[in-house]
Structures are given as C-alpha cells and as structure tokens.
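README, section 4: Worked example with a bound small molecule

Sections 1 through 3 covered apo chains. Here we extend the same pipeline to holo records, where the ligand is supplied as SMILES alongside the sequence. The molecule in this example is zinc ion. Nothing else about the input changes; the structure line simply encodes the ligand pose together with the chain.
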Amino acid sequence: MTVIPSTMMAWKKTKPKFGGFELVESTVPTPRSDEVLVKTHSTSICGTDIHIWKWDDWAAENVPVGTTTGHETCGEVVAVGSAVTTHKIGDKIAVECHLACWDCDRCAEGNAHICERGEIFGVHSDGAFAPYFTIPAVNARHLPDNLPMELASIQDPLGNAIHTLTGGPVKDATIAIHGLGPIGLFAVNAAKAMGAKLVIAIDWDNQTRMELAKKLGADVVLGKDHDIVQTIMAHTNGQGVDNSCEFSGSPNALSNTIHSTRMGGYVNVLSVYGNKMTEIPMNDIVFRYLHVKGINGRKMWSTWDKMHELLSEEKIDIDTLVTHRVSFEDYPAGVELAISGDCGKVVVDF
Ligand SMILES: NC(=O)c1ccc[n+]([C@@H]2O[C@H](COP(=O)([O-])OP(=O)(O)OC[C@H]3O[C@@H](n4cnc5c(N)ncnc54)[C@H](O)[C@@H]3O)[C@@H](O)[C@H]2O)c1
Ligand SMILES: [Zn+2]
Ligand SMILES: [Zn+2]
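The generated complex, written as structure tokens:
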C-alpha cells in the first residue's frame, strides 16, 4: 500500500510575470467526501499552460497567483472520500478538467462542459504539476482497456479534437484540419480512425508538425507555399470540404475555413483568438448556408465514450504524437520546448 506523505514539492505560479514558477513545499490535499486523491503519473503541457507561463491578459484574469497548474493528467487513486462508491484505491484514471456543478440548466440539459458555474481544474484551482492532487470522483475517468498509463494524460486534447470533428460529419466525409498543433494533429489521426474519406492537414510553416501530420495519416498536407482555399477546392471537385476544423488561432485560417467548406457544410472552431481578429465574412456564411459552431472542452460524457471506443481499438497513434517526455524537475524546459513549437505533445513524468 502506498504511504501518502503529508507534504510534497509542487510547481506553483508564484509571480505574476513571464515564467514565474517555483517548486514549493505544499500540503498533500485531503479528498472531500465526493473526491479522490490521485498520485500523479504524468501531466502533459497544454497551450493553456503556455498562456499561464507567458502571463498574458487571459492568464492574469483567470489564474490566482500561487496556483499549482496542470490539467491534462492521469494517475492512480490512492484515497477516496467517504461518499465515493465509483472508485477504489488502485484505480487508474485520467482527468476531465471541466469541474461542473451538476445542478444548473446547462448541466441539466447535458452540457456540463459549459456549466454556468464551471471551473477548470489546474487553472482556477490547484492541478497536477504536483505529485498528488484531489479531483471530484466524477471527473476521474477510468482508463479504457489497452491504454498504458504513460499515454493516458493526452485524453483532454484528444477529446478536444474528437469533440471538434464530431460537430460535423466524419465517416466518409472530406475534412480540412487547420492548424497542426497537438490538437490539430490528434484531429488528423482521429478523423482517419473514424473513417474520413479525405483529410487535408494545413499548417503555416511548422515542418516538424507537417511531417507528423503525414505520419498520422493526412492525405494532403498544405502550408504557406500553397493557396489554401484553391487547393482545398481542387481536391473536392470545386465544392469545398464537408467539415472544416479550426485549431490554429489564426484569423486568416478562420477565413480560409469559411471559403473552402462546401455549401451547407460545417465549420467547427476550437481555437481561441488573440486581439487581432479580422472581419467575419457573414454573407459567405449566410449564402453558403454554413453551420458554424464554437467548441469548448469535451462533451461529458459522449466525447469520452467515443474516445474510449477508439482507444480500446488502438486506433489512435499516441506514440507518434507524444514527441518528448521530461521529468517533473524539468517542467520549465518542457514549457520552453512547447513554446518553440518544434514538437508534438510534451509530457511531464513524475
Ligand atoms: N476551446 C477549447 O476548449 C480549447 C481547448 C484547448 C485549446 N484550445 C485552442 O485550440 C487551439 C489549438 O491548440 P494547440 O495547442 O493544438 O495549438 P498550437 O498553438 O500549439 O498550434 C497552432 C498551430 O497552428 C499553426 N498555424 C499558425 N497560423 C496558421 C494558419 N494561418 N493556417 C494554419 N495553421 C496555422 C501554427 O504553426 C501551429 O502549429 C489554440 O488556439 C488553443 O488556444 C481551445
Ligand atoms: Zn489542455
Ligand atoms: Zn452546472
């Protein structure tokens, strides 16, 4: 049986500036009645962690100084709260980071991922760049069969990718993935796994990621040397793709999605945009009868169910997508690597 220490060293955002993280001696939390205590196995570095590292306006407004961040995580349950009946010590879990109240109108209608009182684990409250964390049992998702713990922390971004793709048709559909960061790369792989007819993967100039997209099954890979809209039209009989997914955060890419999706097609947008936003071509959206949808998080739990089906069937190539692993002590180096963009997913091991 694991002996649980009373204190641990955790990465905390201690200073409101670029970087500003320190390893700080902290109390190992005690689970509330509806929570489990988890011993962290690994936590992957997300774009959100980069925002917090850089301390941009969004981070300054959302993250309390002193927070232990990290939300894409997995580990083993080492203690359970008094009311928990769904988990036991030794269970292997990964975290759904959207903490819902389960009591508001959004939760009642099946949209707990946009709960009116929702918070994000590892953003608004302490998370998993620490050897132990507590989480509501309902957010601790048991691992699917066949998924090794080393690869389990990536279900948050893989789920983002699947949620975005499933905002439109996937099986037998033509799909364009704009932006080949880790989430766009997962979307390329998941689209092929779900039976897409044609997957066109588009980045600007990140050669590492464009190569990874090829390995992950993209039929066509485009970049800044191509006329993106014209090339997509040429590959789809002049009609445009059925389903465009935007993962780049670039307003130009968003504009490209609107001009290269077929009449009556689907544009699903996961990206978060900075201050520079171009005008939205509303008339094109109207006359092309497009379904444009904002995507947030993962559906709780239909996205997880679909993801676990794909993972159980070993249809997702996580090994190719996790390009780097760093030790807990080397978290700052991991963030710098993620900022450089010369990588797929970077995972921190404990
Ligand atoms: N809504 C949500 O719940 C949610 C959750 C996680 C992430 N996000 C957002 O999703 C997006 C994807 O995240 P990520 O971590 O995979 O991204 P990332 O920032 O690592 O990658 C973006 C990629 O887009 C490429 N790019 C830049 N300009 C481009 C252009 N004009 N056309 C095509 N590609 C271009 C870049 O070279 C880069 O490889 C980000 O905007 C992130 O903030 C949203
Ligand atoms: Zn994330
Ligand atoms: Zn709610």
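What to look for in the output: Residues 46, 48, 71-72, 156-157 surround zinc ion (ligand 2) (CB under 6 Å). Residues 182-193 form the longest helix (12 residues).

Section 5 describes how to batch many such records.
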